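name: query_chain
kind: protein
chains: 1
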Amino acid sequence: MRKVISKSRAIKIVTLIFALIGILLIFPIRVFTQTLETSGGGTIVSESQGINFENNKFYQSFIARYNRLSSVDVYVTNVDKGRYITSYLCDENGAVLLANYTDTAEFTIPGYVRIPMEMNVEVGKEYSIRLADCRSKFYVALEDIPADSAYVGDLTWEYAKVEGLHLAAKYNYRLPLSKGVSLGIILGIALLAAAIYFGSDFYYKKNPEKDSLLTVEKVLAYSANPVAAIIFGALMIMVFPLKIFDSRAIDIVFYEIGLIIAAAIVFYAINHKVIIHEEGISFWQSLKNEHRLQYVLIMFSMAMALWYASGYMNDLYDIYHYISERRMSIWLIIMLLFTFSLKEFFNLYNFVWVLGSSIFGVHYYNLHKLAPDEKEYDLHNAVLKYGIIIVILGGVLVLNLIRLIILKAREIRYGAEHSKRQVVVPTFFGIVLGVLLILMAILNNTRMWPIYLAVFAFFLFVRFAIWDKRGDFYKILSGGFMMNFAISLAFSYLHRYFPGYVSGRFAFIFHTVTVTAEYLTFMGATATVMLIVKIISLPNNAKLKEIAVIAWKEIVLFGFIMSYAIFTVSRTAYLAIAVSVILVICVVISYYKKQLFRILGILILSVILAFPAAFTLQRILPTIAADPVFYPIDDADEFIRGGADWDSTNFMCVERFANLFESKILGVDVGEYEFPMDPHNYEDNGRGEPLYDYYGRPYDESPDKTENQESGMIDPPETDALLASSMMTRAEIIMLLDELEGYVDTDNILDVISNGRISIAKSYLQQLNMWGHEEMGATLSNGEIAVHAHNTYIQVAYDHGIPVGILFLFTMIVAIASSIRYFSKNRKTEPLSLITCAVIIGFAVAGVSEWVFQYCNPMTVAFIIALTPLTFKAKEI
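structure:
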């Protein structure tokens, strides 16, 4: 960053970088798009019957022509009552993919009414548009069917097919810019870049006295500051006065505060001076320059392994589990391979193995791959391909380890004086852990993952035990964990909406908040240690400004991780993370008693500052990206599954989140959240009693006024836009009743609060034996199967037998004691060694309420890697 370059060279480099980014945005990223209008091609010949509360089963099927449905324009001939149209995009089975309320008052009637969607669809697949009322009655135009109408299917009314007609509609698809337009823009960017490049060269040759020197740090600041200013300025204007995301004052103010905080963080990151401080610790600057690239590659591999482990947790079918498992294994092997130097990696043995195994692997793949006409051939072939890659890379790893072990043995025997010879031997904890993994592999009871875990752990521990750079292990470990969080955060900003419904609890990159709690537990524990270590490295009289300068990255990181933990509104997450953080603080305070209040103050302050920024960015950025990813069991309602409705009131907002937190965490009765998506149907500017009955008649004119005088808060979503929640939404209540039915002890409040975990644990304990079970899951009192025990300690005993369960508990106790002892011994030379203790504590705490010990669980991956330094020690011989 402090390297000096000339101004002319800086302009050339910056120009080329921005030109490259611009070209990549055009192709292959293809950010900019155009719309293509398609239609059935008929002539309007008639009008539909009135669509109202009683008659609202109007379906028009069509075949998707492109993969992004931008909108559908429906020709409305008359709106007899009310003003809103309800529309649904359904799949071939009639399942609702997206719902919309469209205000017809914004269009000229009769005429086309645009229904925005921005929904990804599958080309060639059949979908249908369903039109329904919304306290309204309206009519739509129908067209005849031309002979060449290949993309418009059947029209059905009240489940009966309408012959010879289809809905008068236009289907608008969003497409990337055409090749001609894209090439034209790319050529324009290239010409502009060339003009600036050669123009600056010409200018500074004519005026060499002006070609002053600049540091890379200043060049970065000059380039990045305008970009950041434009981005945050645009976002703040979009929040207000444009009110693109929300029109409520409290949300506008909160989002503006969040953007100001986020902008302050970004501008400080761009403009702060990168210097080596006399006090405190800098993890990155303490690394040697020649090691940094290698370490970054190891960190990235670790991060990707955790990414695919997280993906495994979202998979619902075995075939997808196999794919995620093998991808994760590949990255774990790559992580270990990056620990070798280029000289160690490039040798004749590796070349022969890679060449021979690759040739055989290609032959084996072609021999065993499934044909395209086989079911799920692509998925099965992917599993086969990844398995071959694992064998090839695994062979390289084995060859290199064998070679290094032989060289190490020769060095010990012949290379050094007897008094200086050292050998690496397993610790007591390493022996205990090894016995546990071996017994789990032997008593696997048809499960393969214990074998995979034991093999990976063996190679991991051996490689780091004989690695000459293992002194930097904790910097690599913390960097890998945090790089994974950064990747996950970027994915969340691009693809994960912040929904207010159905449950309103944000699951980050996972499909349930339970798994999110596990993930954030070890991430939060790591971030806690990184921040605390920065704090305790400073003198006791250090001021807040000095702490912020030294630890600003760790403060931001901890604050964001804890903010996402808060977003889960999950008691499990709060308890696991709180206990882990408190225990980590207790370990630190036992050595640094005077630092307690400063540590607590910085931790709390970091969350207070980060929460508005994290909330705002998570609410805003994914809606702008408009490419949401929903998992099969995501509970976001159908009104926000597209990408067009940025200001939908069904997204999370300040009031909705406050209500959820107060009711679920604090147990406060906060009443009902009332904010409709169709505000013109209700009194008091969107709040209060409905203005019309279900038929669109004013309540004063409704013949059944007394019968319909209810507030409308419990109307089903199909017929009313007003969604409400006090303690729980109706969908949550239904889910909870389904889950609790039959086996939960309703007289035990703890069993009810824990969603039946106590009853599940009792069933598992009653069925324990000495050698474990082959079947997955125990039988509950009502005859159902509980897939897992929601408790790691019980699950290990159930799967592998009571002795292994006891050994697992003993291993965890020894692990905690060994990690505390290790930190005590190394706290001055390697304070980050507290991360191992933090991860173990987080694993142990989360394991009380969840099953977190499985080869592809991200918490297990983090746990095993973090244990590495505890498994061996250097001993003089």
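note: Residues 31 and 642 are 17 Å apart (CA to CA).
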